[in-house]
């Protein structure tokens, strides 16, 4: 802010408003640069009904938090019990029970130790196609083996 502009700002809004505006910038959480990555185990890049896969969310930088995994297939969303992270990593085992296109979302909630009080959330998403075992790319009913 130039001297003239800052003088106008002080006259228009008062010195307290100028100090508050500066304080808002200083109080912004530094953890806002954090991100989450979702990774999944697979069968050589494919996914089959009734097989078990690991879903992992990793917070970068590593910070303690809680992860919740949700899957959506055919407009039905299922969210699983929240998992405490260990060193910024949370993993759960998942077994798809029907074929289709799945939207998988990991939500990671943490408290920023170097920012203002409160919780912050990270999200990571992926889309995968799950097939019946032995019938990749074809539409079949998938009876449980």
From TrEMBL:
InterPro entries: Ig-like_fold, TAT_signal
Keywords of this entry: Signal
UniProt superkingdom: Bacteria
GO biological process: carbohydrate metabolic process
Keyword Signal: yes
Signal sequence annotation: 1-33
Keyword Metal-binding recorded: no
Protein name: Ig-like domain-containing protein
Organism of derivation: Nocardia amikacinitolerans
Lineage: Bacteria, Bacillati, Actinomycetota, Actinomycetes, Mycobacteriales
